[in-house]
Amino acid sequence: MAAALLFDLDGTLLDTDPIHAAVFREVFAARDREISEGFYADHIHGRLNADIFAEYFPDEDPQAVADEKEAAFRARLGDSAAPMPGLPGLISRAQREGWRLAVVTNAPRLNAEAMLGAIGMADTFEAVVIGDDLRHGKPHPEPYLAAMDRLGVAARDCIAFEDSRSGVESASAAGAHTIGIRSTLSDDQLRHVGAAATIADFEDPALSTHLERLTGVIP
């Protein structure tokens, strides 16, 4: 039986949400709009750039605004960043167990490559699925279905890790056992949109129970 771990990127493999929030605030402020933490969490976090900028700046080219925002993000990220606590150990276990590994993200490809390089995992994942490369990004299930197809695994044999509403909706709609990462949203918020469970990070003791699904202990 092939099994897989499917990971969102921003806020899941590394804690980039403070950088994104700061850069979004700057982009909006440059256009005379102020956004709060709550607005960011409710209306921006996890969404595709094209959708965000088309909605809030309809008189501008969404791609141009997105390019501006993401260049600023990559400049702040730099060449080195810390992975989410416990991630290296989880990846090592997955490799020992023979579990397949994929990243599923709404981030632009340049950002995805920069983030994976910054945490030293540029060559760790068999597949990196980019929402912009598909007909539908998250919250549609297509990104996760595409990852499962590329890895040759069934949804019932996948665990997905997500930190955003749109990501949880995408993974759960694709049929993956979806675990929310509480890097931005609460347990209640993540469960409300479909998470089967939540963890603080990959060092959370609760994670081991969920991994047993892939070893056959939990049917």
TrEMBL record:
Essential cofactor(s): Mg(2+)
Annotated GO MF terms: catalytic activity; metal ion binding
UniProt keyword annotations, A-Z: Carbohydrate metabolism, Magnesium, Metal-binding
Family classification: Belongs to the HAD-like hydrolase superfamily. CbbY/CbbZ/Gph/YieH family.
Keyword Metal-binding: yes
Bilayer-spanning residue ranges: none
InterPro entries named among the record's database cross-references: Beta-PGM-like (IPR051600), HAD-like_sf (IPR036412), HAD-SF_hydro_IA (IPR006439), HAD_sf (IPR023214), PGP-like_dom2 (IPR023198)
Superkingdom in the source lineage: Bacteria
Family annotation (PANTHER family): 6-PHOSPHOGLUCONATE PHOSPHATASE, HEXITOL PHOSPHATASE B
Protein's recorded name: Haloacid dehalogenase superfamily, subfamily IA, variant 3 with third motif having DD or ED
Organism field: Tranquillimonas rosea
